[in-house]
Amino acid sequence: MPVLYLSHGAPPLADHRSWPAELAAWSRALPRPRAVLIVSAHWEAAPIALGATETVPLIYDFWGFPEHYYQVRYAAPGAPELAVRVRNLLRGPGVTVTDVPDRGLDHGAYVPLKEMYPDADVPVLQLSMPTLDPQALFGIGRKLAPLRDEGVLIVGSGFFTHNLRAMTTDDEHVHSFTADFDAWGRETLAAHDLDALLDFEHKAPAARLAHPRADHFAPLFVALGAGEEDLGALRTVIDGYWFGMARRSVQLG
Question: Which residues form a coiled coil (predicted)?
Fold first, then answer.
């Protein structure tokens, strides 16, 4: 299976003029997954935690939106067998994997998955990020890489730039620091420069402005670790901006 990093938007993603169709087309071009393992910017928990594996609820982890966004449903099956496999892959000296059986999918997970697999017929498991350290997350991705040969689609869900204070009123107006960071990201990904990506806070222009916190860039490192052997085939599938934030999304393999 390929590995994805996608910019997941927010609840209004479903109303975007092109984004839902782009995600739907992307999923149609992929092999049919046996299950999805997703890492979202919206779940940081240490030690590493696994979410619900039986009935999988949704977490409406946003505020101040119109009521209909809180009425969205996505009743994806759980993936208990995948959870066992993930625990076994991640276990090691000093590593603990915990279960949070009532922790559902946050909007970083269900919003894009609803567009990609609208029938909610693919089992889904969400994994927490125990740290924002790029090297550590890359290492977690490496450990998860064997799942690709078992039909599991590994997805990192964040946002290629994420500074809510710099959001603009439309997709056309983009702050220069956002455009500079996105251009650096495009070139660095195309060059397959893993070292620069992992050290983005020092190598990328305006990294602190593009990402005041690294939480939305961090899922990329899990994806890079899981897809390391296909780094040379990395490609951008979706780009452009949403209210001034870069929505670059990539595929490995």
Answer: none
